[in-house]
Amino acid sequence: MRRFHPEGHYSARSGWLRAAVLGANDGILSTASLVVGVASAAASHDDILVAGIASLVAGAMSMAAGEYVSVSSQSDAERADIDRERRELEADPAAELRELTQIYVRRGLSPQLAHQVAAELTAHDALKAHARDELGLFESNQARPVQAALASAATFATGALLPILAAWLSPLAVTPWVVGASSLVALAVLGGLAARVGGANVCSGASRVAFWGVLGMVVTAAIGKLFGAVV
């Protein structure tokens, strides 16, 4: 007799993984780029650290607010769809049963079996059946604004700490190089880990994150050199 065992799927991680990766990547890249740009403009060591800390605080708050607002909008839309479905079930349950039956027919079941499945699922939990099979809303991927906001803020701050520490520990003359190199390595590792957790190719994940990291830091360094001012 085969024993049932739950299977973990990568898609179940999509919500928190997206917010966490975005936050950490943005924390490293934006703070490192700012620090490299400020350092390239011949700023003092204290000015570089102040700029980095300001970037960490402002960026974490911005990420939290942005994620909360955007995911709240998604959550509002999901709730509105579920409320509408609830009203339709109360107003005309027979029509909703036929609708659910047709969904299963289009997915490959015979009309008789589709009706049987729809009837049994409706008797068990009609709203849940329609939310899942008509609206495509699953518990594992429902919008969670607070979770997304906290994950983004925490991971941004964690990521931003790396270039700040690198700037703090390195001599002023080589600060742009130390910050750039350490941040580039961190971005590549982050991209690889995110790809691994998400079931994608590790090398592709690392290379695409590293590419944008190099581009961002090169551009800000060039601006700092060109204008010779804090940017």
Structural class: mainly alpha
Poorly predicted runs are 7-13
Largest sheet: none
Q: Share of helix among residues?
A: over 70%
Shape: elongated
Kindly report how far apart the N and C termini lie: 67 Å
Q: Compute the number of strand runs.
A: 0
- Radius of gyration, in Å, reads 25 Å
- The residue-averaged pLDDT reads 80
How would you summarize what this structure contains?
The chain is mainly α.
Describe this structure in words.
With 231 residues, the chain is mainly alpha-helical. The protein has a domain at 12-84 and 145-227. It has helices at 14-40, 45-91, 93-106, 111-133, 145-169, 175-197, 202-227. The longest helix has 47 residues, at 45-91. The protein is elongated, with a radius of gyration of 25 Å. Residues 7-13 have low confidence and may be disordered.
Task: Name its key features.
mainly alpha, 231 residues
Lay out the secondary structure.
Layout: H1 14-40, H2 45-91, H3 93-106, H4 111-133, H5 145-169, H6 175-197, H7 202-227
